[in-house]
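Exercise 7. Given the components listed, write out the predicted structure of the assembled complex. Treat all entries as one system.
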Amino acid sequence: MGDVIQLLPDHVANQIAAGEVVQRPASVVKELLENALDAGSENIEIHIRDAGRNLIQILDDGNGMSPTDARMAFERHATSKIRSSEDIFTISTKGFRGEALASIAAVAQVELRTRQADAPVGTAIYLEGSDIKFQEPCQFSPGTSISVKNLFYNVPARRKFLKNNSVEFRHIIDEFHRVALPHPDTAFDLFHNDEPVFRLRKGQFQHRILDIFGRKLQPALVPVQEDLGWVSLSGYVAKPEAAKKNRGEQFFFVNNRFFKSPYLHRAVQDAFEGLLLPGYSPSYFLLIEIPPEKIDVNIHPQKTEIKFEDENLIFALIRSTVKRALGIYNVAPSLRFDAPLGLESVLSSGTTSSSSGHISGGIQVPRDYNPFKDEVAGPLGSVSFPAQDMEPSKINLFPDEDLDEDLMRLPNGYWLYNDGERCLMIDPGRMHRLLVKESKDSSPLTAVSTPLLFSMEYHMSEPERLRLRQMKKYLAKVGFQLEIKHESTLLINSVPYGLNEARLHSFFERLFEITELDSEEAFLQAYQERWKASQARSRFDFLYKKDVEEVIKQFTKLGFPKYLPDGKRCYMELPLEEFKNKF
Ligand code: ADP
Ligand code: MG
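Answer.
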């Protein structure tokens, strides 16, 4: 046989590549909105016709483009946002791959009008299936308008795959929410078949949430805030009574970019532990701010998955901060609040607040905004305050933080503990492990099953497949709902209530090590041991003194053993005398 390889013609290659970025009208809306934001727009207008099949037009008042840039913008890998691959790690714009416009133009008819503020006239370009049909000067106000017509007109197979208009429009709305929510300082107007659907004015984050999801959510919102210096978390969670049986409104943003994370979703779910009926999910709107070099956004063509340098720490931050917020607003009365601490600080900080509504380093709360009017007494018992003095973020979240100088967290997750005589470097995770091991509690064997929001896939080795066959019936009894997808992929749909799902994968790895499978009793015993182990926390889960104090308290009751049964150290004593000689 002779040579068979040939290069694909450009238009075919472009259409294929477009498939990665443009799956449906909603993907076009997302990309164009992101470009408008990257261009610094303050007002964005979106016009949709027939769920985006026939027209998607985005108008912005951003920087605009020069005539040459307007042409260049449709080339593949043409971008003004990065120069080298290194730049991806310091990126502050939404886009950087330079693929969106090229992809969209490959599968639609596109009309672009744009003008830079200092240019006397604008430029208009018309393209069909990647070909520039004409470019000419035009009158246009500063900014850009892109109209995308007849999406997939030249790829009938893809057009056929589009769902009905209501489904496609729903996707558009979902993308719109994801972009509009974290950009409350930009106004958005969205029209469908000339009817206004959203008119979002500039405001603050909480206003944007309410403008999109309705005022009825107002009394349910609980503010969440923590700043660790290198990373901060802010936003809102909805109280348990507003939880939904289906997925509800769940949004994570990192540096104002929406992302999905089943793992971090678990952190919120964990924080609501014991507050929700099985099957219910909390609503949340959480913003993470982190230096761009600590995340990688380039692991997914639509950039909806993010890799964090230290995901465990982000998990712990979210779980602890949300938990604390729920406690402060008396949503979770079981949380401990040692004494009426913070009363003074609430009183003083409540009255010395600035009138601008800006709180340094924190979320912004307007003077007149108070979603918690009815509950100001909350965790502070019977003391009540005028509502306007109870701006949520004015409460000192960690009132005892400065008094407890005997305990300090180190950047590597260990803690320094001065017990009066000695100074110890402790590993609270290991101490917790021992506490769990020693505890009498065991797993609920007639477990209530909780469906996972996102089924988890586990890829089984050959021996694991055989094991699964033997233990499947036992696993069903303790509350797992499993499915085999393909030969070796196990789909975990539901898990026993209370299982630490963040460690589900490693839990399964350990389950497959169980060899006691002859009788149900033997299996259950081995299973319980693993259950306990999976409930243990790591040192990175400990961010707050209160938690570490609790561990120390319990650990003291055990006699403060230095080692775990497997020989690992729980703490080491610092040789203070030796330090003296060093000075
Ligand atoms: P990326 O956003 O990854 O750079 P795109 O294909 O989405 O790639 O856009 C290519 C370039 O076109 C952008 O880098 C930007 O310079 C320019 N551009 C696109 N849309 C706009 C807009 N609405 N306003 C100004 N410039 C734009
Ligand atoms: Mg872009």
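Discussion: The chain is about 30% helix and 20% strand. The chain has a mean pLDDT of 81.
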